[in-house]
Amino acid sequence: MWLQPGGHVEERETPDEAAIRETMEEVGLEIEILDGFMPDTSFENKSEDLPQPFNINLHRIEEGRWHLDFQYLARPVNEISEKEYSDEDMKWFSEDELEDEHLNMPENARKTGLKALEEI
User: Fold this and answer.
1) d(Cα 79, Cα 60) in Å, to the nearest integer?
2) pTM of the model
3) Domain 15-39+49-119, what fold?
4) CA-to-CA separations, 66 to 27, 58, 62, in angstroms, rounded
């Protein structure tokens, strides 16, 4: 089954920092989060606006336990070739591939991928 990189937020880490770290750990790809959806409302070093997630997904993983997924739009920091991530463990998906309802990917992940392609 195909899923985006993901993991848990570490102590003293923001969700966007976790997304950057987990992508590096799982895929070996350095990314930067695409932001700019909201104006900066930070106030005199007393608060900090975090990058806005593209999507937030809440789902139950077992009785009494839930996962909250913060999904971000991001781009690679360095140029990459499609070949670098085309083996059986990691893959880039085209819009045509994501439109295939029989793709071995959870429906919400497939639809989120399609929506992300519309946004970038």
Assistant:
1) 37
2) 0.81
3) Nucleoside Triphosphate Pyrophosphohydrolase (3.90.79)
4) 25, 7, 7
